[in-house]
Amino acid sequence: MSELASIQEERSRTIVKVSMVGIITNILLASFKAIIGLLSHSIAVVLDAVNNLSDALSSVITIIGARLGNKRADKAHPLGHGRYEYLSAMVVSALVLYAGITSLGESVKKIITPEEVDYSAVSLIIIAVAVLVKILLGTYVKKKGEEVNSPSLVDSGSDARFDAIISFSVLLSAIIFLTTGLSLEAYLGVAISIFIVKSGIDMFKETINEILGARVDREFTAAIKDTILEEEQVQGVYDLILHNYGPDRYVGSVHVAVDESLSASEIDKLERDIAHKVFMKHGIALTGIGIYSVNSKDETVVKMRDMISRIVMSHDNILQIHGFYVDKETKTINLDIIIDYDLKEREELFKHITEEVQGAFPDYTMNFTMDIDI
């Protein structure tokens, strides 16, 4: 088994272990709370029990997602099955959302037809213990989820800490009822339900964001670029694109700038060295390494580059320029320009810059590209 496969297998075992802790804890909490809620006629406690039960089910789905996601690549799925984890996270989000909507309906019914509640000292102690257990469980699960980059575990950990707040509010309403006789049960149930619905929507949106292709963490991409820049012949690293096939499973491509004097064999060796180093250090397979040739021998071209750089970078909202190359035979100037996404008139600015450089070099054709801010 390769080192990367061993890491993924260990990650899968961690997810299963943490999820099992969540399942056992939530089933015990749900059982105690259900008994208390039914005996005391407390809709808030019953809903809290149902919420714990849905958390246990979420952990089961997380385990299934981790196991499916760790399946070996095959002919039909040559890049593996890692995205199963995103699907399992979506199912967890849907369960949370369903629990919240169902709870909301039951709470509204209790407002219309209220029932008298009857708390005991034992029930209050159990609820208080549940608050503490949920805080500890949520912290543990979320921490482990972040360590192994599991969206499902992170969602479950966050949900557990939300549950601690819910259980505390149930405890608080019970104390208010015992001290003042004011029953806030049904209204608290509505508040709890809305809270659950919101957390379900947030989880769902976050998972959808990952599936759509969210921006990769800048610190992570910067570390990869720094690794590539360790190669002496590399003068710049640009256009790093990472395709996500599950948590910590990336396939990518990149452009590197090198001196125009490098031979094909030197470039070939450089590309192989870069691909190997990035895979061993970051676990990322670079399937494509493009080359930007840097004009260095022709002083006229160097002066042109400096002048064009001043023209382009004099404008606001320009983040970077790269890929500059002048082909004197075809009289073409190549350049990639990255414009900030926050600027609404990106196309207008790009057109203006192209025309401005064209005015400075009327004998040349501008082969400019408005590149992506990745």
**Rg for CA atoms:** 29 Å
Find the structural class using helix and strand composition: alpha/beta
Order of helices and strands: HHHHHHHEEHEHEEHE
* Biggest beta sheet attributes: 3 strands, mixed
CATH top level class name of the largest domain: Mainly Alpha
CATH fold topology of the largest domain? Alpha-lytic protease prodomain-like
User: What fraction of residues sit in β-strands?
Assistant: 5-15%
Which CATH architecture of the largest domain is right?
Up-down Bundle
The helix content, as a percent range, equals: 55-70%
Tell how many strands the DSSP assignment holds: 6
What integer is the average pLDDT?
83
Shape call:
elongated
CATH superfamily descriptor of the largest domain: Cation efflux protein transmembrane domain
Residue ranges: pLDDT <50 for 5 or more in a row?
none
Distance between the termini: 33 Å
Spatial strand sequence of the major β-sheet: 1-2-3
- Tally of helical runs: 10
Number of domains: 3
What's a quick, concise take on this entry?
This protein has three domains: 3-212, Up-down Bundle (Alpha-lytic protease prodomain-like); 224-290, 2-Layer Sandwich (Alpha-Beta Plaits); 295-374, Cation efflux protein, cytoplasmic domain (Alpha-Beta Plaits), CATH 3.30.70.1350.
